[in-house]
Specification:
Length: 276
């Protein structure tokens, strides 16, 4: 209803818990990018960023339409749950490490500080899982799928998810250019960014949180679900998280313990976990 290119729902069978969607093809942005020129890839990312802005501009409509998205949010509890998921699945289950005592306390304090900072930021509508596997290229259009977890969150959330996506490994320099492109679009939108310096910091903080959650998901798939297909993405996600922590400069001291642990275990991330 907001004009966003999500596949149309053609039919619903509540009794069977089934939906019939418009066909969005089989080509994910991740696949489409293979063999494209830099110019073609950049234009695809710009298109995806324009859609993020449009998603955020739909925020005021949520309450009037009684959308479930308006009652869900990346509050401190939700963000902290995601980092707990990362901790349990990456360190405990995937690597078989038991972090206790002072180390555990330090990590939990850093998680709390990060989540408190991010949950205090103004919230807009976010897709929640906006990356190159959830954008489909079909019939000259880019379709958004897997949006059932949409909720309220920081304006940087979908941007960080897209630009530091471990599935594509976008160069940081290009990612930074695209952050500035997003900022330029937001200046003319109905929900502009009020403090640009703070927003750039927010992008790095959000990237760190988002990548830690992704590491947890990949580790869970390997160690618990017995699916090693995601192991290859653990190290790229660690690299992206560390990159953002380094970019935070003095603020990275707030994440010094988790940063050290990631640096220590990065070389072990190719080890396939065993189901537990």
């Amino acid at each position: 209803e907001s004009g966003l290119p999500a596949p149309r729902i053609l039919g619903i069978s509540g009794q069977n818990g089934a939906l019939l969607f418009e066909d969005a093809g089989d080509v994910r942005l991740q696949d489409w990018l293979d063999g494209r020129t830099e110019g073609e890839a950049l234009e695809a990312y710009r298109r995806a960023i324009r859609m993020i802005v449009r998603i955020q501009e739909a925020t005021p409509e949520l309450a009037s339409r009684d959308s479930i998205c308006s009652s869900l949010a990346f509050d401190e509890m939700k963000l902290k749950w995601e980092l707990g998921f990362f901790f349990a699945n990456y360190f405990n289950r995937y690597l078989g490490m038991k972090l206790e005592g002072e180390i555990n306390q330090d990590v939990q304090q850093e998680f709390k500080a990060l989540c408190s900072e991010l949950s205090s930021r103004p919230r807009v509508l976010v897709h929640r899982d906006y990356h190159a596997r959830n954008l489909m290229m079909h019939g000259g259009e880019m379709f958004i799928i897997d949006h059932q977890d949409a909720r309220m969150g920081p304006a940087s959330y979908d941007l960080a998810s897209l630009l530091r996506d471990p599935y594509t490994g976008l160069d940081r320099g290009i990612a930074q250019e695209l952050v500035e492109y997003f900022i330029s679009l937001k200046a003319d939108s109905s929900v502009p960014i009020s403090d640009l310096a703070e927003f750039r910091t927010e992008v790095e903080l959000m990237t760190a949180q988002r990548m830690l959650k992704a590491i947890g998901t990949y580790s869970y798939q390997a160690a618990v679900a017995g699916n090693p297909a995601y192991v290859a993405y653990i190290e790229p996600a660690i690299n992206a998280a560390l990159d953002s922590m380094e970019a935070l400069g003095r603020l990275s001291r707030r994440l010094s313990r988790i940063r050290a642990l990631l640096e220590e275990t990065r070389g072990l991330s190719g080890t396939v976990g065993h189901p537990v």
